[in-house]
Write a structure and sequence with these properties.
This protein has 377 residues and is an alpha+beta fold. It has two domains: 190 residues, Ribosomal Protein S5, domain 2; 174 residues, GHMP kinase, C-terminal domain (Alpha-Beta Plaits), CATH 3.30.70. It is 38% helix and 22% strand. It has eleven helices and 13 strands. Helix 3 packs across helix 5 and helix 4 runs antiparallel to helix 5. The protein binds alpha-D-galactopyranose (GLA).
Length: 377
């Protein structure tokens, strides 16, 4: 990548940084309700080779792009001004400056092996890689959580996607061999050991190849529905509704909001149960919680799709301990916990089921919990 950087930008880089994509084990659509999440970072990451510039220009190049440099004046960055993938890194530089950090320009060369549009948080990885490189290039005193929040602001305000904070927190704060148990209200976090491989269990990721797009309005509508429900219940956020109060809340709410609330409340409960099991090292027992979470996303939150439903059902009937869609939904990826001796069987069963249904061939890989954003060279 250093050679490529020199070829594109004509000078030597200062260093290389990486930020991972993620899968969320459980706790979906809870983050913008001030709730709980439990993601792991993937071994797949966005790598950025970078050098600072003194002329206030931000020059961006992606190995996955169209072989063109995007050249922007840092002082002129404004929300909505940069279309395409370049809006994510440009948004981070804008967010840093908005937050009062005196940062200037840079040359940034990106290379990613996080599948994009697969619900594996390639955008958060792009943002967090940029923020981590800038932290070091400009010697900023930025803790990982702060870096994540600035990255989320870039996505919310600069790119215009109303996401929660989970993906950026996962990319910035995860530790190797652990899931990040995060309270999204105050960002309290705990690393919970997650090495199912030691008990002969694989975490299989199935990318259904159905591209999901958080910017398409459905996510914003769900978020607005949850916020409206909290308001009607007189709560700061749905996180404040305990499971004991659920039936009374459902009776009080308009019919269309009830299922959203039921999902969020029960999903927060599933995170708590999952953490208890992981603390005891009971990875196999996590399976049914995943499958239950999928049913809730499919039936109450209605963010699954025929491909994710088929992948989950097929995985479970072929011997997975449990499975669910992961991420925002409307396509994207499914995770399954599978006894290692059955991983091949489950992969083949899903591939055959997709073929029979006339769907595109899914991509599968086994994931381990990797480290969050860091300097690599
Ligand atoms: C997307 C968003 C996250 C979160 C998930 C659903 O990944 O970026 O903030 O809301 O969807 O859990």
């Amino acid at each position: 990548m250093t050679d490529e950087f020199e070829r594109i930008f004509g000078a030597a880089p200062t260093g290389v940084w990486a930020a991972p994509g993620r899968v969320n084990l459980i706790g979906e659509h809870t983050d913008y309700n001030d709730g709980f999440v439990l993601p792991i970072a993937l071994p797949h990451s966005v790598r950025v080779t970078a050098a600072p510039r003194t002329d206030g220009r931000l020059r961006l190049y992606s190995a996955q792009g169209d072989d063109r440099i995007t050249d922007l004046p840092v002082a002129g960055l404004a929300p909505g001004a940069v279309a395409s993938w370049a809006g994510y890194p440009a948004g981070v530089v804008w967010a840093l400056r908005e937050a009062g950090y005196q940062v200037g320009g840079a040359d940034l060369y990106f290379d990613s092996d996080v599948p994009s549009g697969a619900g594996l948080s390639s955008s958060a990885a792009l943002e967090c890689a940029t923020a981590t490189a800038y932290r070091d290039l400009y010697e900023l005193d930025l803790a990982p959580a702060e870096l994540a929040v600035l990255s989320q602001r870039a996505e919310n305000r600069f790119v215009g996607v109303p996401c929660g904070v989970m993906d950026q927190m996962a990319s910035a704060c995860c530790a190797e061999g652990a899931a990040l148990f995060l309270d999204t209200r105050d960002l309290t976090q705990r690393q919970v050991p997650f090495r199912p491989g030691e008990q002969g269990i694989d975490l299989l990721v199935i990318d259904t190849r159905v591209k999901h797009d958080l910017g398409d309005g459905a996510y914003a509508a769900l978020r607005a529905g949850c916020e409206r429900a909290a308001e009607l219940l007189g709560l700061a956020a749905l996180r404040d509704l305990p499971v004991e109060g659920l039936s009374r809340a459902l009776a009080a709410l308009p019919a269309e909001l009830g299922p959203l609330v039921r999902h969020v409340v029960t999903e927060n409960g599933r995170v708590a149960r999952a953490v208890e099991l992981l603390d005891k090292g009971e990875f196999a027992a996590l399976g049914p919680i995943l499958t239950e979470g999928h049913a809730s996303l499919r039936d109450d939150f209605e963010v699954s799709c025929p491909e994710t439903d088929l992948a989950v059902a097929t995985a479970v009937s072929a011997g997975a301990l449990g499975a669910r869609m992961t991420g925002g939904g409307f396509g994207g990826s499914v995770i399954a916990l599978v006894p290692q001796q059955l991983t091949g069987t489950v992969e083949q069963a899903i591939s055959a089921a997709f073929q029979a249904a006339g769907y595109a061939e899914p991509a599968t890989f086994t994931a381990t919990a990797a480290a969050g954003a860091h300097r690599v060279g």
